[in-house]
Amino acid sequence: MTAPAFLPTLLSVLLIAAAGYTLWRLLVSPVLGLANDIEADAPLPPAGIATAGLLSNWAHTLPRAPWTALFAAAGCYFAARAVSVRADPRRRGRAAVHACGCAILVYAFLSGVGPSSVHGSTAGQYVMAGMPGMIVDSTIAFPALGLACVGVMAFYAVCVVARLSPAGVAAGSRAAFAPLSVEICRVLIAFALVYAILSMLV
Amino acid sequence: MLRERLQTALAGLWLLDGLLQLQPYMFTENFAHQTLSAAADGNPAWVAHAVTWSTGLVAGHPVVADTCFALVQIALGLGIAHPRTRRAALGASVVWAGGVWLFGEGLGALLSGQANPLTGAPGAAALYGLAAILLWPGTAPGSAPSGEFPAAGLLRARHARMVWSTLWLGLAALTLLPANRAPGAFVAAMTGGMMTVGEPQWYTALQDHPAHLTLGHDLAVALVLAALLALVAAAPWAPDLRIARAGVALAMIVALAYWVCGEAFGMPFTGMATDPNSGPLLALLAPAYLPASPELATAPATAAAARPEGATA
After folding, report:
1. What does the alpha-carbon distance between residue A48 and residue B84 come to, in Å, rounded to a whole number?
2. How far apart are CA A1 and CA B26, in angstroms?
């Protein structure tokens, strides 16, 4: 039995839908006079499209280099913002989280995370080597940094869910534009990135 | 506040477990034959039978079974994280963890005589269930409103302390099992079998060094470790808050040492890990017994008494 192909396809479709929705939300909110956090939400459409390309060949758009440069620049911007707004712990925290998210995307592009053409899994397939007591591991070992990214994204997702409430994400004095939906998109992108990194290993 | 943070951390661990179930290996028959079936080894017939039955079920339908496992655990993680669904998800997690403990972990090998806390006994699933009960939202009837420590929620403080002491004395007893104090037992537990397969070199070296320090001193190391675990077990009963806090700190250090040196972070490097093992859960439970300082415990009550009637915080 092989690893299911439906999973990356499903996630890619959801990611593209999320990217489209967050882009539409950014464009429409000024027209409707509703508030949103442009700075925090602007990276979501490219992140959704880029992550979809990491999961499925059919969703591939730009080469890796432009995506890497884009998210590296965004990560630097958010890191600088985290320093500049250090007097406001809430904004500083959010900027730092976005910087981490961009860094993980950069990692995913630099470390070769991509759609797998291998069916099944070679994990746990050990063969005996020539010398007694020795084994050769045919599994590709997980990089420790990738595992750290998986842990960070999992805990980030639960932190987002823990603060999911309309009051918790309202922006400014104007009514926020569907604030819960954008948080759900963040969780989806985090899930998809984790899946993309975990799928590196077959 | 601390209890909510610990609940969120527990949710994160459940979510991580669910995400690990999405690794390609988990969708293959090998997950049943290599990972699940191993839990039957050395167990009494009725436990082995339960494990063998679940192994057969998963091996027959690996994709469906693993998709269900992943979805349930992801749902538990998200459910525990969200305040509105927290109670229901914690309750469901107790049931799920109980099932995984029996059918997937063979009761953590507790009945086999081979269970070793250094390699994860009594099993992560048992600790997930325990954590859900200890971190249950609310306060037990008759308890202090502020709660003496976060674990004194569903259970009263005395019962919660008894659970802690039973857990850590149990770990101490397991450490002294003949199999775990025999010559070479620590090296075998820390670096034997497939423990170091797939690990980065730097981490294997990190495990090798302390493991080889125990060579020839297994009994002494086991005795010292058991004594430390007994101290942790007794700490919450100490009348002095500083001693209780020191016990919590010691518990976290021991949990971290188990996780790094014995459990190899749950062996995630080869894409076959189902959870990060028991170390993070032991470390998660420890702060749940962190006693509040008397000033902090009485502050809400004092503030409430000073507030004019009808005023809200």
Report:
1. 28
2. 10
CB within 8 A of B25, min separation 6: which ones?
A121, A123, A124, A201, A202, B31, B271, B272
How many angstroms separate the CA atoms of A2 and A47, rounded?
28
Q: Which residue of A has its CA nearest to B35?
A: A124
Of A3, A158, A202, the CB nearest to B77: A158
Regarding beta strands A135-137 and A126-128, do their DSSP bridges make them parallel or antiparallel, or are they unpaired? antiparallel
Residue B278's closest CA among B155, B50, B49, B108?
B108
Which ranges in B100-156 belong to alpha helices (H)? 124-134
CA distance A137 to A123: 9
Task: Decide: helix, strand or coil at residue B122.
Answer: coil
Q: What is the pLDDT of residues B222-275, one digit of tens each?
A: 999 999 999 999 999 998 899 999 999 999 999 999 999 989 898 888 788 899
Measured between alpha carbons, how far is residue A67 from residues A58, A64, A200, B75, B199 in Å?
17, 5, 19, 32, 30
Q: Which residues pair with A176 in a beta bridge?
A: A35
Nearest CB to B27 within list A1, A116, A124? A1
Contacts of A57 (CB under 8 A, 6+ apart): A115
At B159-216, the pLDDT tens digits run 999 999 999 999 999 999 999 999 999 998 888 766 667 778 888 888 888 888 998 8
Does B204 contact A at CB distance below 8 Å?
Answer: no
Decide: B16 and A151 in contact? Cβ < 8 Å. yes
B82 and A164 in contact by Cβ < 8 A?
Answer: yes
Best to test chain A binding among B23, B29, B35, B201 (most A CBs inside 10 Å): B23
Q: DSSP readout, B91-123? A: HHHHHHHHHIIIIITGGGGTTTT---GGGTTT-
Instruction: Report the amino acid identity of residue A151.
Output: G
pTM of the model: 0.88
Residue type, B33: H
SS3 A190: helix
**Chain B residues close to A141, C-beta within 8 Å:** 198-200, 269-270
- In eight-state DSSP terms, residue A143 is P
Omega prior to B122 cis, within 30 of 0:
yes
Tell me, what amino acid is at B270?
T
Residues 271-290 of B with CB under 8 A from A: 271-272
**Alpha carbon distance B129, A87 (integer Å):** 41
A201 with B77: Cβ contact below 8 A: no
Cβ–Cβ gap A116/B67 under 8 Å: no
Nearest to B12 among A120, A155, A199 (CB): A155
Annotate B130-140 with b (16+ C-beta within 10 A) or e (fewer).
bbbbbbbeebb
Alpha-carbon Rg for chain B, nearest whole angstrom, is 21
